[in-house]
Amino acid sequence: MSKIRIKSGRRIRVDCEIKLDDRELSRYFKLDTGAQNTCLSARDLGIRLSEKEFIETYKPSFRFEGTGIDDSSTVIFYQIMVEDISIEGEHLGAVPLYISFDKNYSKRLLGLDLLNLLNYIFCFLGISLLFPKRYIL
């Protein structure tokens, strides 16, 4: 079981290992229960292509526009399938992530799409987040 202690007034940072195109990357994500999708910048995923080159190479099947916290700016995200992602040591296998080429987007958010694949417990008394071993229903 993994245990992440939540510091007072701090965001929850979750350790993730991502495998894409035979490369393994270690990244921290901020847990965001208000985010529907797990998002990060293309730079954070090690993609050095332009947005146009990415579309031609990966041919993403899905894209969406996210609204910034100012409720007026928009950011375009593209779906990309990773070979594997491990969240706090729990492997989820091949899952979609959503990347942006917007130079102003620099967050790495772990959203409900992947969080709901895990067995997790918020422990408010101990101020921690627990990831017990996954089980198959």
What's the average pLDDT?
Answer: 84
Strand content: over 45%
Q: What letter string, H or E per element, gives the SSE order?
A: EEEEHEEEEHEE
Tell me the helix content: under 10%
Distance between the termini: 18 Å
| Computed Rg | 15 Å
Shape: globular
Structural class: mainly beta
Low-confidence runs (pLDDT<50, min 5 residues)?
none
Characterize the largest beta sheet: strand count, sense, and whether it forms a barrel: 7 strands, mixed
Number of helices: 2
Number of strands: 10
3D architecture notes:
- By secondary structure, this protein is mostly beta strands.
- 9% of the residues lie in helices and 46% in strands.
- The chain has two helices and ten strands, in the order E-E-E-E-H-E-E-E-E-H-E-E.
- Strands 2, 3, 4, 5, 6, 7 and 8 form a seven-stranded mixed sheet that branches. Strands 1-10-9 form a three-stranded antiparallel sheet, with no helix packed on it.
- A hairpin with a 2-residue loop joins strand 2 and strand 3 (23-31).
- The longest helix has 8 residues, at 51-58.
- The protein starts with a strand and ends in a 6-residue tail after the last strand.
- The mean pLDDT is 84.
Looking at this protein, list some descriptive labels:
globular; about 140 residues; 2 helices; seven-stranded mixed sheet; single chain; mainly beta
Please outline the helices and strands.
Elements: E1 2-5, E2 13-20, E3 23-31, E4 39-41, H1 51-58, E5 63-67, E6 74-87, E7 90-100, E8 109-110, H2 112-115, E9 121-123, E10 128-131
Parallel strand pairs: 3-8, 4-7
Antiparallel strand pairs: 1-10, 2-3, 2-6, 5-6, 6-7, 9-10
